[in-house]
Structure to design on (573 residues):
């Protein structure tokens, strides 16, 4: 069943198109990811779906019902975790959760019990009575996620849940997201971390400059990179002299010399049989120390289809994350 | 029922986080006390105390309410927690009412501090308390919505403070608080009638001293009209500017 259906969604800011007729859907129980660089339109899309931004064009549906222009209708079923924590600094962790539950009309006992359970699940029991302002960045993010699911929404929106968070906490947060998924929560996640998207999402879309350039399950997207097989060898000697012979004997393969003359990368459009290669290396007095099959990665697909260097995207974001600022202030 | 849970939680949170905090309670006390002392001690004649009471009450309400909205709205908007409220499944009108009710109550509380002081100096037996309560409530509502109007028109807390002074200080002189309207230059008087506090003070004068100059029903009507206009304009502004 489709929880969210988006058709030709568009957002203009004074003539500038931030989101350009995107269409996608999110199935019940899956994690759907938006992967894209700075300013791609991820947050704007979430804002339009949740009612923080007016829709310029297109339609949005929640559980089959159109709610374009009437977000209040749908908000009760949504949990929203923005890219920056927006809880109340002066309230404790527990009070924050209880308050958020009340916003969704949960009665007193119910929201108390649920808040206590979430604090436990998120490993924040000990900080329950501490004011939010005394939380570390990672703890803040965790509590903000807990606040997003206090009312057990049909769909949870997570805008860059691990950006600007240190590695250990980011890992915990990913585990929590995985756990929510296993318990059946439907999640719309945006990220600029490709490994995160690959690890967590069942389906994802690459979004660049407001447009979805590719969309599909992780396997479907990977297929595009599967045209090429690669094996990297580390040898016990200089390969350059033997290269021609190898090229002659294995016409389907190309041999690229790596950083040193003893590192060789073998590329082929068909499967690479290892034994004959190893045998020839041995015959050339080149002991094989290591052979590594390089799996095609989502990263390659992303770089290929978007033309965006991943590292650049990450560096840009990390700088932004550290400053703690978003595109909007 | 669900809407009521949200409404009361927002109100209670604001009460606890802002209004019942010691600095605010003491502000709520010190401010009227200061005004009371300043005016009443200068004129120890009982009659004068009575004359001054409506003005001091109106002033306490005005300053008490308008200063709070800069915190409960502008500040929360700035640190983004206001977004959480906008994303909650409650109507914008209800949300804005919840965010302003605390200030209204705070204003009412502020109004009765000078009454308490005056009661030590003069007898207040002939006062029409029913009318006092009605006008205090309506002045508190109107001033709160004036504060709301200011709070949603700016984006920084200090702007809200400056902007509200732009309204508050002229009101001190123009609304007949201490200088009767009849003593103001004729060309300024239309301005007085364009400010809500003029009508509020007039009811208080009628209720406390019987010397108001405008019909009570017209006063109530004008205050109600100002409230409705300020509230609608504010929610319109939030809808237009904060929902991008
Ligand atoms: N309120 C606004 N007014 C004008 N332009 C805006 C506004 N909000 C966003 N934009 C622009 O829309 C584009 C998309 O922004 P958005 O915040 O959705 O990107 P994003 O993918 O979430 O990026 P990031 O990774 O930086 O969070 C950007 O070019 C941004 O500058
Ligand atoms: Mg964003």
């Amino acid at each position: 069943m489709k929880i969210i259906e988006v058709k030709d969604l568009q957002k203009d800011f004074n003539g500038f198109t931030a989101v350009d007729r995107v269409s996608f859907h999110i199935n019940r129980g899956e994690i759907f990811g938006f992967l894209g660089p700075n300013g791609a339109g991820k947050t704007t899309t979430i804002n339009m779906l949740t009612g923080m931004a007016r829709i310029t064009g297109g339609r949005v549906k929640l559980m089959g019902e159109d709610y374009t222009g009437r977000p209040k209708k749908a908000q009760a079923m949504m949990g929203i975790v923005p890219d920056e924590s927006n809880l109340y600094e002066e309230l404790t962790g527990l009070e924050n959760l209880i308050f958020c539950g009340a916003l969704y009309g949960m009665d007193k006992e119910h929201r108390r019990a649920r808040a206590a359970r979430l604090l436990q699940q998120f490993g924040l029991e000990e900080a329950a009575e501490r004011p939010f302002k005394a939380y570390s960045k990672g703890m803040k993010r965790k509590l903000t996620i807990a606040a997003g699911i206090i009312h057990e929404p049909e769909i949870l929106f997570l805008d860059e849940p691990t950006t600007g968070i240190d590695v250990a906490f980011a890992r915990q947060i990913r585990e929590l997201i995985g756990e929510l998924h296993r318990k059946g929560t439907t999640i719309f996640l945006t990220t600029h971390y490709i490994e995160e998207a690959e690890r967590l999402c069942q389906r994802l879309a690459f979004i660049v400059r407001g447009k979805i350039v590719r969309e599909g399950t992780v396997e479907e997207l990977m297929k595009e990179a599967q045209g090429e097989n690669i094996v990297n060898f580390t040898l016990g000697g200089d390969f350059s002299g033997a290269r021609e012979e190898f090229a002659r004997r294995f016409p389907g393969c190309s041999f690229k010399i790596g950083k040193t003359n003893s590192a060789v990368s073998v590329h082929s459009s068909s499967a690479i049989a290892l034994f004959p290669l190893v045998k020839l290396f041995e015959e050339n007095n080149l002991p094989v120390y290591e052979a590594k099959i390089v799996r095609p990665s989502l990263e390659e697909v992303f770089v290929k289809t978007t033309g965006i260097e991943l590292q650049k995207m990450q560096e840009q974001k990390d700088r932004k994350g550290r400053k703690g600022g978003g595109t909007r202030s | 029922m669900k809407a009521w849970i949200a409404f009361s939680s927002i109100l209670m949170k604001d009460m606890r986080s802002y209004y019942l905090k010691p600095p605010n309670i003491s502000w709520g006390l010190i401010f009227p006390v200061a005004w009371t002392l300043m005016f009443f001690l200068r004129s120890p004649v009982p009659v004068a105390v009575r004359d001054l009471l409506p003005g001091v009450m109106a002033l306490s309400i005005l300053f008490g309410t308008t200063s709070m909205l800069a915190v409960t709205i502008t500040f929360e908007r700035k640190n983004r927690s206001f977004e959480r409220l906008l994303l909650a499944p409650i109507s914008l009108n209800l949300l804005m009412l919840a965010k302003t009710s605390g200030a209204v109550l705070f204003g009412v509380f502020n109004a009765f501090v000078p009454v308490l002081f005056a009661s030590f100096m003069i007898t207040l037996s002939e006062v029409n308390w029913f009318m006092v309560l009605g006008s205090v409530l309506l002045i508190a509502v109107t001033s709160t919505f004036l504060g709301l109007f200011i709070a949603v028109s700016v984006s920084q807390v200090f702007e809200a403070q400056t902007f509200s002074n732009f309204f508050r200080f002229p009101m001190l002189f123009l609304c007949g608080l201490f200088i009767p309207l009849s003593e103001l230059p004729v060309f300024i008087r239309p301005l007085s009638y364009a400010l809500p506090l003029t009508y509020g003070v007039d009811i208080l004068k009628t209720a406390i001293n019987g010397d108001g100059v405008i019909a009570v029903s017209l006063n109530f009507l004008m205050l109600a009209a100002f409230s409705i206009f300020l509230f609608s304009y504010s929610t319109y502004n939030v809808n237009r500017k904060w929902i991008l």
User: Anything to note?
Assistant: Residues 2-243 of chain B form one domain.
